[in-house]
Design a protein that fits this description.
Layout lengths: L6 E5 L4 H12 L3 E6 L2 H10 L5 E5 L5 H14 L5 E4 L14 H26 L5 E6 L12 H20 L5 E7 L10 H9 L7 H14 L3 E3 L4 H10 L1 H9 L2 H8 L17
Parallel strand pairs: 1-2, 1-4, 2-3, 4-5, 5-6, 6-7
């Protein structure tokens, strides 16, 4: 896919990966409709890019009102997007039984339910183009269920399944569905507890700019699925074929995970995306 001249919706645009991705997409020739909940960050992002290349929409896409607001903004701006990048997310690090049910419900609503309904609402616009794409920025935890991230993993597994099914449902058409998974990324999405866990487990991480460059490359190439990072790519494949091997490998880390999870703060919302992935 040649991105030059295309309009791309980027949700979660005010976060670490979102900001870097908007810059990379503009460099590839696209114009951006940047969606997020943080007005000041979106305003700063628009000021960093050439005039007229990025418009902003402040909306909470976990709600019907937020999704309707985005669609109304697209119609008012008279733009026709051909790429939708789902970059918004909410994270939850902590022991499942210690987390409040309302927070868990909101995470699933944001990461999975809201994303599915947004895709559904935008399909008529996307189908107008001979070539279009829906891109979900996933997580390694969408392929490997990880202790301390149970609900987050569930939301990303669900998103991966949705994209896989829609890709097969639209096979042979001009509309593609891509699930692209960063590993740990150095953004403010991480809580201190997650940073401490990653440091003790010696988890590799990437800079947002490098992640954004890899994502744009995958979008251009039309990759249906891509896991970034090594050995994360290998672990995801092993978990799909021989999950018991991963069970045994992660069992030794469980006391460390439990110790850091017990010190975790409440669920972190939106913005920076995927700093907790591996």
């Amino acid at each position: 896919m040649n991105l030059a001249g295309r309009t791309v919706i980027v949700t979660g645009a005010s976060g670490g990966i979102g900001v870097a991705l908007c810059h990379a997409l503009v460099q590839a020739g696209a114009s951006i409709m940047a969606v997020g909940r943080n007005r000041s960050r979106l305003t700063s992002l628009a000021a960093e890019l050439p005039a007229g290349r990025l418009q902003t929409v402040v909306a909470d896409l976990s709600t019907p009102l937020g999704r309707s607001h985005l669609i109304a903004a697209l119609r008012q701006a008279n733009v026709s997007p051909s790429v939708l990048v789902l970059g918004h997310a909410q994270s939850a690090f902590g022991l499942f039984e210690d987390q409040h049910p309302d927070e868990l419900e909101h995470l699933l609503q944001t990461n999975l339910v809201g994303s599915a309904l947004l895709i559904h609402a935008l399909l008529p616009m996307l189908r107008r183009h001979e070539q279009a794409s829906v891109v979900a920025i996933g997580s390694t935890f969408g392929s490997i269920g990880f202790a301390g991230f149970a609900t987050y993993s569930a939301s990303k597994f669900g998103l991966r399944g949705l994209m896989e099914a829609l890709s097969r449902e639209h096979d042979g058409t001009g509309l593609s569905f891509q699930y692209l998974s960063p590993r740990a990324t150095r953004t403010a999405f991480n809580t201190p507890a997650v940073d401490a866990l990653n440091a003790e487990l010696k988890v590799g991480s990437d800079a947002p700019k490098a992640v954004a460059a890899a994502l744009v490359q995958a979008i251009v190439q039309g990759d249906r699925r891509r896991q970034l990072g090594w050995p994360e790519k290998l672990f995801a494949r092993i978990n799909g074929m021989f999950p018991a091997l991963v069970d045994r490998s992660l069992r030794a880390q469980l006391p460390i995970i439990r110790r850091h999870a017990s010190q975790a703060q409440p669920i972190q919302e939106d913005s920076s995306h995927e700093a907790t992935s591996r």
